[in-house]
Inverse folding.
């Protein structure tokens, strides 16, 4: 036990100090002596100094006694704090390394000063990336009246925040299994804990829980061949989805989504002015070559503003005998939304005033223009939702767009005959390039982003009412808390990192590390042979590089 050091020598110290001061005063000039007569006597100053020394020594002794008394009981806490400190240091180190690798597209930094200089969570977009331990899960909800989801994430908390809020409100999502990519630089736990407190049951998985040990422990280096990286990415996806579906079967869940954080399950109709919308679509339909039968619902679908309306919509149409909703695997066409932004008055339309500042960071409100329906080149293949309660076996998944071939339809689902769809948001270049792509193999590129960014054939606001329903359900303050950290700062926030003298050319000059992998091969020929998607993309790449000095605003 550490013994407190007694307070001694105060009298001697005062005597020495008094003697020194006396000698100095005797050597002073007479003018100084006369001036000193107007001040308190010297012994009073000495007494004050001595008293201060005694008080400081007393508190020092008390501090030693307190720390000594509690040292044995706080040993484990100190160890835990040490572990947390190490984890935080490792997180900051890895975050710093990620920023160095991506310095052409971001200037954000994470302070390393014990959080003294961090902005408040309300203002700090990146506070959601800070490490946090998972809290306890709430009880499982009823599987028949709720949705579940299998979700793969990698450094996309800025999108996860909006994704969770939307699906929690509209579906309602109440059970979630998340697989975190082992190469992630950030953790989603802080965001997930918000929703655990709201009653969302969430499990966070690592690769060891759904991959064979020899695969999970075999780390693929960044300099591995492209095909090796792609194969690992697809192995992770397929194995995770299969294990996740099996788990939900054991948990007695029903409908499960297999979508990403940039995809939002949506009604394929407008909730308001249903008859007017139907007539408009019928006019478009009659002018097209395709003459299939228009889907006829028993009633108009609910509005996204209605809490939990999706599951009731499914049950209602199943009872009504609608064929689209009968299979245990329902294919949902996707609709690709580009990066062309609407004027602020249109983006803010029907957004509750208390939430207006957040609207700039919500993809579902910020981007309204999309590719033409039925364009499978731009929109991509369909994805599925599955009712695991009606599936007995879960074979090896061959395609993410057709997870179980025996019960899922072909992935080029006709939009005209579908009761559901998936809004697929490209997002801003900042959001798209925020993290290293999980494929690590060049499937993402700046050219690929611009190719999709130009999608602006039509506008669609069907999803917009969800935010008003969300705020009405939870109130303005709680809604802002749940949405804190959504999206990334709007365009211009990071422009200085690349070219401070030419913000208009920011997107092109900020893409050094994101050039398409096979650029020389594409530019080396005048014509591409292959499927429609490849032909269209390669043709765009050639044209894009001929006018590369044009700003993105000019291209869009």
């Amino acid at each position: 036990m550490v013994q407190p050091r007694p307070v001694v020598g105060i009298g001697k110290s005062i005597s020495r100090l008094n003697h020194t001061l006396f000698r100095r005063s005797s050597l002073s000039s007479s003018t100084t002596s006369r001036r000193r007569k107007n001040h308190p006597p010297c012994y009073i100053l000495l007494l004050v100094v001595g008293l201060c020394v005694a008080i400081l020594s007393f508190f020092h002794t008390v501090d030693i006694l307190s720390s000594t008394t509690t040292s044995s009981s706080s040993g484990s806490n100190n160890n835990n704090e040490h572990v947390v400190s190490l984890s935080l240091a490792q997180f900051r180190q890895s975050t710093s390394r990620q920023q160095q690798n991506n310095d052409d597209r971001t200037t954000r930094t994470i302070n390393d000063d014990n959080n003294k200089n961090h902005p408040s969570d309300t203002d700090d977009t990146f506070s959601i990336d800070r490490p946090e331990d998972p809290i306890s899960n709430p009880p499982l909800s009823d599987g028949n009246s709720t949705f579940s989801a299998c979700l793969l994430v990698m450094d996309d908390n800025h999108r996860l925040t909006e994704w969770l809020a939307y699906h929690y409100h509209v579906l309602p999502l109440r059970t979630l299994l998340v697989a975190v990519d082992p190469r992630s630089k950030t953790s989603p736990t802080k965001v997930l804990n918000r929703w655990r407190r709201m009653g969302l049951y969430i499990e966070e998985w690592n690769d060891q829980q759904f991959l064979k040990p020899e695969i999970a422990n075999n780390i693929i280096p960044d300099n591995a061949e492209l095909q090796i990286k792609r194969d690992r990415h697809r192995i992770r996806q397929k194995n995770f989805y299969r294990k996740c579906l099996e788990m939900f079967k054991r948990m007695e869940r029903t409908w499960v989504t297999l979508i990403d954080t940039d995809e939002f399950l949506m009604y394929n109709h407008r909730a308001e002015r249903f008859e007017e919308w139907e007539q408009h679509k019928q006019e478009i339909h009659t002018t097209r070559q395709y003459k299939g039968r228009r889907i006829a619902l028993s009633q108009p679908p609910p509005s996204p503003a209605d809490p939990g309306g999706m599951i009731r919509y499914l049950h209602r149409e199943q009872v009504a005998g609608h064929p689209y909703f009968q299979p245990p695997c329902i294919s949902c066409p996707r609709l690709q939304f580009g990066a062309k932004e609407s004027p602020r008055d249109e983006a803010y339309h029907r957004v509750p005033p208390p939430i207006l500042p957040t609207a700039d960071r919500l993809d579902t409100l910020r981007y309204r223009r999309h590719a033409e329906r039925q364009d499978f080149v731009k929109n991509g293949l369909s994805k599925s939702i599955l009712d695991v309660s009606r599936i007995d076996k879960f074979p090896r998944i061959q395609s993410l767009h057709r997870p179980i071939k025996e019960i899922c339809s072909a992935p080029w689902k006709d939009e005209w005959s579908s009761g559901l769809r998936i809004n697929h948001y490209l997002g801003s270049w900042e959001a798209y390039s925020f993290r290293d792509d999980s494929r690590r193999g060049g499937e993402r590129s700046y050219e690929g982003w611009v190719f999709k960014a130009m999608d602006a054939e039509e506008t669609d606001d069907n999803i917009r009412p969800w935010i008003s329903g969300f705020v009405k359900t939870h109130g303005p303050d709680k809604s802002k808390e749940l949405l804190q950290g959504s999206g990334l700062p709007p365009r211009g926030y990071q422009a200085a990192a690349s070219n401070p003298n030419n913000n208009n050319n920011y997107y092109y000059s900020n893409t050094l590390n994101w050039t398409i992998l096979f650029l020389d091969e594409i530019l080396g020929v005048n014509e591409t042979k292959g499927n429609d998607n490849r032909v269209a993309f390669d043709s765009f790449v050639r044209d894009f590089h001929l006018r590369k000095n044009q700003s993105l605003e000019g291209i869009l």
In short: The chain has a mean pLDDT of 75.
